[in-house]
Design brief:
The chain is largely without helices or strands. Helix content is 0%, strand content 6%. The chain is built from no helices and two strands. Strands 1-2 form a two-stranded antiparallel ribbon. The protein is globular, with a radius of gyration of 14 Å.
């Protein structure tokens, strides 16, 4: 999970990138991505999530994504 996928080789790249690997469970969890010292002036890919269900169906619920 993270943000910032667009590289410098594109016309309008993301000014910051941050990714972290997480492990999801059946319980509700809160995750935080620290952005304190990052340049957030031009973030075009604001939230990304890649999942690997390993052959099983799955549902992911996301709520309250906030950039501060």
């Amino acid at each position: 999970m993270g943000f910032g996928l667009i590289d410098d080789d594109k016309t309008y790249p993301d000014t910051a990138k941050q990714m972290q690997e997480i492990v999801l469970t059946k319980s509700w969890q809160e995750f935080t991505i620290k952005t304190k010292r990052l340049d957030l002036s031009c973030i075009r890919s604001g939230f990304v999530l890649f999942s690997s269900p390993e052959g099983f169906d799955h549902e992911i619920y996301i709520d309250d994504i906030v950039f501060k």
